[in-house]
Design goal:
Elements (H helix, E strand, L loop, with lengths): L1 H11 L7 E4 L4 H9 L3 E4 L4 H11 L13 E2 L8 E2 L13 H16 L1
Parallel strand pairs: 1-2
Antiparallel strand pairs: 3-4
GO molecular function: UDP-glucosyltransferase activity
Family: Belongs to the UDP-glycosyltransferase family.
Length: 113
């Protein structure tokens, strides 16, 4: 919906924009930025600490290390931060295929930004 309108506007802009600034949850902006060869900057209103924790959990070599119950340490932080799986966002908990597909697209878009 909005992607088509945004791309139409970008195609008509003179001069071309220097970058696209977008929310992390608007994954289609990655495709649009690639299409128009415009750098993309994403932001997440949560916090840098949240972003770092999520990044460290995503890159864990083996996410099966996350116990179903009981606390575990978030890896690669300067201080010992313990959480339980229940405290993690849905990304690390079972989800429907539809929601998981959206989360996968958001994560893929984040890695390109």
């Amino acid at each position: 919906m909005l992607q088509d309108q945004a791309e139409k506007s970008l195609a008509e802009m003179e001069p071309k924009p220097n970058c696209i600034i977008c929310d992390t949850h608007i994954a289609w902006t990655a495709e649009t930025a690639d299409k128009f060869q415009i750098p993309r900057i994403i932001f997440d209103g949560m916090s840098c600490f949240n972003q770092l924790c999520m990044h460290n959990l995503y890159i864990m070599k083996d996410q099966s290390q996350i116990p179903e119950s009981g606390p575990f340490v978030i890896p690669d932080l300067p201080d010992r931060i313990e959480v339980t799986k229940v405290q993690l966002p849905g990304t690390f908990n079972p989800a429907t295929i539809c929601v998981q597909d959206i989360r996968d697209k958001i994560r893929a878009a984040e890695t390109k930004a």
